[in-house]
Each structure stands twice: as C-alpha cells, then as structure tokens.
Design brief:
The structure is a homodimer. Chain A is of the alpha+beta class. Helix content of chain A is 64%, strand content 12%. Chain A has helices spanning 3-10, 13-22, 29-36, 40-53, 71-76, 78-90, 94-106, and strands spanning 27-28, 56-61, 64-69. A three-stranded antiparallel sheet of chain A has the order 1-3-2. In chain A, a hairpin with a 2-residue loop joins strand 2 (56-61) and strand 3 (64-69). In chain A, helix 3 (29-36) crosses helix 4 (40-53) and helix 3 (29-36) crosses helix 7 (94-106). Chain A is globular and about 40 Å long. In chain A, 27% of the residues are buried. Chain A binds chain B through residues 2-13, 15-16, 77, 79-80, 82-83, 86-87, 90-91, and chain B through 2-13, 15-16, 77, 79-80, 82-83, 86-87, 90-91. The structure holds a DNA duplex.
Chain lengths: 113, 113
DNA sequence: GATTTATATTAGTATATTCTTATATATGAA
DNA sequence: TTCATATATAAGAATATACTAATATAAATC
C-alpha cells in the first residue's frame, strides 16, 4: 500500500466524507447515498476506488453491500488514522453529515434501504 | 486550507519525497534537484504546487530560493504532521534520500549550488 | 554590458480523473 | 417467471495533472 496512493485517494471531498461516515462503523451503499445526497453511481465508484487502494473493505449480505474501513489499513497506519479522526472533527460539514446519518438510520425499517 | 486539497497535494511520490527532505529544514531548489535526481523544471513545479496549497513557504536569498515547511501549516495540522513523520520513516526510499542529502550538503561549498 | 547560474513559466502532449447517462448483474418478492 | 431494488460497470465528454523542451527572469560575476 503506497503512501502517495493513499493520499491521492483521500484527496477528494466526497471520499473524505465517506471515510468520515465509515469511521463510525459499516454502512451499505444506499445509506451513504442518502446521507451525502449523491447519485448511486458516483458513490459506488468512489467506494470502489477506496477499496482498490486498500482503505475500505466490503461484504455482501442479501442485496446489500456493506462497506467499512479495512482492518489491515487501520493496523498498518494507526497514527495516520488518528490524525484523520482529528482532521475530520475540524471539517465544517462533518457535524451535519453525522446528524443526517442518524436520521437516515432512524427512519430505516427492516428489509428496506 | 482544505483537507482534500492537502491530501491531493500529498498524493504524489515526488512531492512526498520533497516534503520528507524539508522536514529536516529549509533547502534551496538546486539541493532538492540534486538529491532527487529530477529536472529543475519538475522540482520547481512541484514546489510551486505545494506552496500554493499552503504546505510550503519560500524565501529568496541572492539567486537562491529556499523552501521550507509552512509554519502556519504545522500549527494548523500538528497531528497530521506527526503522522507524516511516522509514515515517512516507513517509506523504503527515505533513508537513501536522507543519505544523499547529507552528501549533497557536505560536498557543497560557499557561493555554489 | 555580457555571461553564467538559479529559478520560474509557457506550450504542447499524454494520461488520469470526474461526472452523467445508459446498461448490466444479482438478490428478493410477488 | 416477472418485477423491483441494490449495486456495479461501460461509454463518452470535460477537466486536471504530469512530463519534456524551450524560454523568461533575476541576481552575481566577469
């Protein structure tokens, strides 16, 4: 996992917001889509890119794909990850994303996205 | 200073190597050029980019321009900077760059680059 | 003033990235 | 089997990036 590639991958607003959301635990694509208000294709492509860099992993359950921060990444770059947590807290849009996530999760019933 | 822009700027091997060198203190363009073995134009453009992002500053002395890590950047993102130090130490080429820098500095006489 | 040295900028090409639209796949439900 | 939902991939256009070669600027020296 190349450092430059990691930074290149992190160097995008949408991907940073996605990572910020996933820091709180795994989410399915449609949740991320709802929170960010971005098209499914767009979210999917950004997720794929972060996964191919090794920052994220995914697991499939029924028709949903759940993405989460890759454990290997966390273990290989613990200090970088800590600094990301610090930086995320400083981001202006972070709070509203987290609020929106809470709303999306609350309004979500079983067998639905 | 946008976080995504910072990462985007860091997302390049040459720029990471330059930053690694400048962590040890200011250097003129020709020193960086010698250490990295990269063309002057190339080094200059990467430096300009990092400066415009706010990661570096420069001062001019006689015909030389000395670049260094921007103090404001260090003060605004201390934890990120710490993580960079940790990551740099893990980079495979870092040691050889530092050695090369020592050689370049030693072989350098007054009024010469 | 002419020349050399250090650095920056411009022009042009090749490649990468991002977005939108359309389409494909895969699972579950009717 | 057909339909609806969740996700991924492909195609095409617009923009950004990186590199090389050539040129410009600016200071120092002769």
């Amino acid at each position: 996992m190349e450092l430059a590639l990691i930074f290149k991958t992190l160097g995008d607003d949408i991907r940073l917001r996605i990572l910020g959301l996933l820091m709180g635990g795994e989410l399915c694509v449609c949740d991320i889509e709802s929170v960010l208000g971005i098209s499914q294709v767009n979210v999917s492509r950004h997720l794929a890119r972060m996964k191919s860099t090794g920052i994220l992993t995914s697991r499939k359950n029924a028709q949903w794909v759940y993405y989460s921060v890759n454990r290997t990444f966390m273990e290989t770059h613990p200090v970088l990850l800590d600094s990301l947590i610090v930086e995320f807290k400083k981001l202006p849009g972070n709070k509203s994303d987290m609020k929106k996530l809470a709303v999306v999760k609350r309004n979500k019933s079983e067998n639905q996205c």
